[in-house]
Amino acid sequence: MGSSEPETATTSFKRVFPPLYTPTGDASTDRLAFFHILEKLKTQKRTGWIPNAESISDHMYRMAILAMCTSDITLDISKCVMMSVVHDLAEAQVGDITPREGISKEEKRQLEAEAMHNFMHGMLHGSPPALRIEAIWKEYEEGETHEARFVKDLDRLEMALQASEYETAHAMDLQSFFDSSLPYLRHHEVKQWGESLAQSRQS
Questions:
Q1: Is pLDDT at 99 greater than 80 in this prediction?
Q2: What is the spatial distance between Cα 24 and Cα 123, in angstroms, rounded to a whole number?
Q3: Which ranges of the chain does DSSP label H, i.e. alpha helix?
Q4: Can you say how many angstroms the Cα of residue 34 is from the centroid of all Cα atoms in its chain?
């Protein structure tokens, strides 16, 4: 669940990361390897709350639909949708790293950057589509543009929505996930959505 997850005590568990893909030099073979590694986004679970949680791609898909729901005409909506579906792409390689694992933000950032470089240059050979994906991912990571900040808010809101649904389905108290997400929403419309969610929990 990454940086939006509330800080918790670290565990003694040490994640073992799979080796990066070794390119064959054949564009077709390496591209197919990339297509296959995308399956990991469908099977890797988001971590930090319940066993057998939603997958990484589940999270990104809802973010993409949320991006399409905005009425903010100053945003490049197409870019926001693409950013939503690539912002956690590196997790196909490294999984959903949470603060409790004792991995620093710097190390996490480095692992994810290495994964993205491997995907875009080892598997997709630095092709124009690869460079487009890489540029959108970097834009999100840097968090400087209107679109990147908006999508970061969608990341926070999606986690809060999922927390609300898990509270209902499993009779859990996940207040810490709301505390680490809703107060940090900055985009005016996403803040309104977050306020509606908070009010729904009180009814």
A1: no
A2: 9
A3: 27-37, 39-43, 56-68, 77-86, 91-94, 105-117, 128-142, 146-170, 175-179, 188-202
A4: 18
| Upper half-sphere CA count for residue 68 (Cβ side, 13 Å) | 9
Report the alpha-carbon distance of residue 138 to residue 131 in Å, rounded: 10
pLDDT (tens digit per residue) in 56-84: 999 999 999 999 999 999 999 999 999 99
Q: By CB neighbour count within 10 A (0-12 exposed, 13-18 middle, 19+ buried), where does 40 fall?
A: middle
Kindly report the average pLDDT of the chain as a whole number: 93
* Cβ atoms 139, 148 nearer than 8 A: yes
Alpha-carbon distance of 35 to 110, in angstroms, equals: 23
Is the per-residue pLDDT at 5 higher than 70? no
CB atoms inside a 10 Å sphere around CB 48? 22
